[in-house]
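W.,

You were right to be curious about this one. When I first looked at the sequence I had no strong expectations either way, so I just let the prediction run and decided to look at it fresh. Below is the sequence, 160 residues in total, followed by the output.
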Amino acid sequence: MTYCVALRLDAGMIFASDSRTNAGVDHVSTFTKMRVFERKDDRVIVVLSSGNLAITQGVVNLLERHQHAAEGLLTIWNAESMYDAATLVGDSLREMQRKDGAPLAQSNIDAGANLLVGGQIRGEPMRLFHVYTQGNFIEATDDTPYFQLGESKYGKPILD
């Protein structure tokens, strides 16, 4: 089971994820669950993922393809706010769900995925979002400055 955590603190942000993935008892592999989109002096956007690996890798690939997008298209590289970046991640997740969700469900494979998206775009404060399988999201607040994905029962007492 994946474990990811992201914290929004006064002094900065912390992102951590494991690299274990499991497709059954006898098939355990290692894959990165963290992708950093960074442009010096402009933006740092971190995406942590859990859930169906094919879906989450598809989301990250869609975001990476933004480097080659037509001018004028909203991308992770020209989003004006972290809210816009979280919206792009949610839209990419919906696109992957539309493309692969039904065929996976027909094979009794869970297509669920959750992502944490956080960072800072020049001109705005650091922000952190939890993007749900459906593509909608919530934002971390001063009352709830962190999000966890995966086996949260182990980390929550320590974080609290």
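Here's what jumped out at me. The radius of gyration is 16 Å. And, maybe more interesting for your project: The CA atoms of residues 5 and 48 lie 8 Å apart.

Coffee later to discuss?

I.
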